[in-house]
Design goal:
alpha/beta, TIM Barrel, M1 Pyruvate Kinase, Domain 3, Pyruvate Kinase, Chain: A, domain 1, 3 domains, eight-stranded parallel beta barrel, six-stranded mixed beta sheet, 17 helices, 38% helix, 22% strand, elongated
Length: 471
């Protein structure tokens, strides 16, 4: 059983229910929908299908929505795309026009006021580069430094320039209200720059009475990297969005930043996600490159909670096969994880409380005894998350009567959550724990499990026991 989770972005190539079923069976743990490209109707359709499949397959795939954020994109082109030739002069208009190889428009009309002559504009994850030569009344005159194909609504980055856009737009507020209405599990925040951006979203969720949706800021620019400690501190986790990050910063810095953020999240007990072009060649090829295999494996051995697929499953030709291959890479890479090193790193920064101390003991004991699984009955998921932070080599089976808790735990390293009926006694807790371990891990007679939790349920608010059971 893989412990590193897979987040799969859903798009035209993966929207059909049979494809979604294949993704789930191949190892998808979280279905992600990017609101920059998807309508609310599309989201409703996918969420309905995922929840129906969860009931049919007895799975707990969670839902993540991405906000649009303060994003700047190109407009539409005559045939959906255009080729910009290196050395050509082109006009970038502030008002909507139909673009071609000599001109296009942008989604942010005040761009002309924010940029200066000689500023660099990059398009499509930095593949196309323009230099600003002059300003007209309603357009920028630019030279194409690096040419290539540009398609409708591709992203724009202005290097070294902070655009005077509010972090939260009216459209974002509507999307967050929609996420609340659809009771999704995770909200990924686009183009976060500081902790205040995250708090702004948190305030909205509080006003909506929502304490369930987990907030995952996307780290996409240097300002977010500089404020990473504060962002991690007030978030449920972060996504290392390497596309924009590699455009905004020298690309050779990205691997080091990725490793640092994974380590910081691990020490803080927060979720870390690595995203962008993990297996990009599989948009068109039936197998990944060796470099992509190494990229996924490297993130796994660094202890990341989840890896994410984007274009591979939204527009790629082989969405199900991509998830299946990624699952195999993860399972193999996890054989090389230094679990004792990750356990020691987590323990050094663990605060001295009852739950943390027992969680550490549970993981150490499970490792020494080569336990088949750790089982933790939980209401809030707190104990399960604590155990996940210590990175056990065996799966963590988190059983809870709260469906929202179960879905929220889906993204955490090593946790396999399961919804159960309310437990009324300690003996029932033991029996249910053994039943679940047999169902999920296929444990057999003679296998050993470690059970931990808090009892009595209504009286104890922290973990207070550990029990070793031989099946």
């Amino acid at each position: 059983m893989k412990k590193t989770k897979i987040i799969t972005t859903i798009g035209p190539a993966s929207k059909d229910e049979e494809i979604l079923k294949g993704l789930i069976l191949s190892g998808m743990n979280v279905a992600r929908i990017n609101l920059t490209h998807a309508s609310h109707e599309f989201c409703k359709d996918i969420i309905t299908k995922i929840r129906r499949l969860n009931e049919t397959l007895h799975t707990n795939v969670a839902i993540m929505l991405d906000t649009k954020g303060p994003d700047v994109t190109v407009g539409k082109f005559e045939s959906g795309s255009a080729y910009l030739n290196t050395g050509d002069k082109i006009r970038v208009y502030m008002n909507p026009i139909l673009g071609d190889s000599t001109k296009f428009s942008v989604s942010y009309p005040r761009l002309i006021h924010d940029v200066k002559v000689n500023d660099t504009i990059k398009i499509n994850d930095g593949l196309i580069e323009l230099t600003v030569l002059d300003k007209g009344i309603d357009y920028l005159l630019c030279e194409v430094v690096t040419g290539g194909f540009v398609e409708d609504h591709k992203g724009i980055n202005v290097i070294g320039v902070r655009l005077n856009m509010p972090f939260l737009s009216k459209e974002d507020e509507e999307d967050i209200a929609f996420a609340n209405e659809m009771d999704v599990d995770f909200l990924a925040l686009t183009h976060v720059s500081n902790a205040e951006d995250v708090l702004e979203i948190n305030d909205i969720l509080i006003n909506l009475g929502n304490d369930h949706i987990a907030i995952i800021p996307k780290i996409e620019n240097e300002r977010a990297v500089d404020a990473i400690d504060e962002i991690i501190d007030i978030s449920d986790g972060v996504m290392i969005a390497r596309g924009d990050l590699g455009v905004e910063l020298p690309f050779e810095r990205v691997p080091g930043i990725q490793r640092t953020i994974i380590s910081k999240c691990h020490r803080a007990g927060k979720v870390s996600i690595v995203a962008t072009e993990m297996m990009a060649s599989m948009e068109n090829a039936a197998r990944p490159t060796r470099a992509e295999v190494s990229d996924v494996a490297s993130a796994v051995t660094d202890g990341v909670d989840a890896v994410m697929l984007s274009g591979e499953t939204t527009i790629g030709k082989y969405p199900v096969q991509t998830v299946d291959i990624m699952s195999k890479i993860i399972e193999t890479a996890e054989e090389d994880v230094n679990y004792y090193e990750l356990l020691d790193k987590a323990m050094r920064t663990e605060k001295q409380d009852t739950t943390g101390s027992i969680a550490y003991s549970v993981v150490e004991c499970a490792s020494r005894l080569k336990a088949n699984a750790i089982v933790t009955p939980t209401m809030s998921g707190y104990t399960a998350r604590k155990i996940s932070r210590f990175r056990p080599s065996c799966p963590i089976l988190a059983i809870s009567p709260d469906e929202k808790t179960v879905r929220n735990l889906t993204i955490y390293y090593g946790i396999y959550p399961e919804t159960i009926k309310p437990i009324k006694s300690f003996d029932e807790m033991m029996e249910r724990s053994k039943e679940v371990s047999k169902q999920i891990t296929k444990a057999e007679v003679g296998d050993r499990i470690v059970i931990t939790g808090g009892y009595p349920f209504k009286e104890v608010k922290h973990t207070n026991f550990m029990k070793i059971e031989d099946l």
